[in-house]
Amino acid sequence: MPKTQFHAELPKEGLSRFEQFANLLPFSREKFRRLGLQNRAPKPIRLGSRITFYRNSELHKFFANPTDYQAEEDANECK
Question: Which residues contact 79 (CB under 8 A, 6 or more apart)?
Fold first, then answer.
């Protein structure tokens, strides 16, 4: 997928729900969740029992280099 198309679909800043970037992933939601548990994908931000977001800045880092991505331990803490 060309970078220009990816950047047009996902803002650099802010938060996104999984459904907003799922079409950019070459694998399932479960695979993305497992990668997150291994710190190999952005970790979710839980705002409730049924509301989960991901930082767009972390998603951009992940999509730029998914094989070498390493989640930062405090990347999803609220500031």
Answer: none
In terms of phi and psi (left: phi > 0; alpha: psi -120 to 50; beta: otherwise), the region of 39 is left
Q: Which residues face 52 on adjacent strands?
A: 46
Q: Looking at the predicted structure, is the pLDDT value of residue 79 above 60?
A: no
64 phi and psi angles, rounded to 5 deg: -70, -35
Tell me the β-bridge partners of 55.
15
CB atoms within 10 A of CB 5: 10
Q: pLDDT, tens digit, for every residue of 7-39?
A: 457 899 999 999 999 999 999 999 999 999 999
- The pLDDT-based confidence of 73 (bands split at 50, 70, 90) is confident
CB 24 within 8 A of CB 36: no
